């Protein structure tokens, strides 16, 4: 054997053994598992993460905490995980932004499909088309009539560039073939405040943000964006956008879990196994249903299928975003 190779062989074997040991030991005793949320505390993704953290503690046998790393539309938190030590103790919970950021950001600091290990999907969150309580319309047909009578005057609120409400709004305008004045805000909170106050007309946003306002009759609800009607009491009477004539209109704001690229396969399996157990937790399911979210039970729970799904979503949203001409540096 080459003397150099002879010298390096034990080192290489030791490195492999160390990685294997770390994978086998995961989670390390007395070391927390951090779920990084790339948005501010109190938002819909943060709520999902905190519910998930509780459900993961038992199957992982570890303390699970939520760490908020907000900014730049979720890219700061995602990049933090992409660059983290790949030992399973730092994971990411992100929503549909994982599939829209490649088109929205010219200088994305990571490669979505290459820099993460995909751990499995968590939930699907439907969207609702809602309006200010003072709108004269009370159903979708009346809304369409009112919009046509007010061309050039209708405005549509969103929570900022790349937000779920922004993306849904883009698709809604395209499907309606109706131009509206979009009004971006710095978050869902201020957007909803102005909708409640009657300063803006419409918004398309997640049930996690709208269900309570709909139930309290503080806003008017016109439709849901899912393929089938929802069973949630506050939303069960709302038609789907497909029912009112928008073929193939289906938008859900899903959440998935990720680890840094290079996380050992054994650790990825432990995280995936724990996620599958957590998503069957009755308390977690109850909390998600209360938010109008649907816990994932299909093949997207498998890492490979999760990755395939995100790739399809990137292909779906890229043309929509490029057509709208919206970009961030």
UniProtKB/TrEMBL annotation:
InterPro entries recorded: BUG, Bug_dom1
Pfam family, one: TctC
Residues that span the membrane, as ranges: none
UniProt superkingdom: Bacteria
Signal peptide: 1-23
Keyword Signal assigned: yes
Keywords: Signal
Family: Belongs to the UPF0065 (bug) family.
Protein's UniProt name: Tripartite tricarboxylate transporter substrate binding protein BugD
Species name: Ramlibacter lithotrophicus
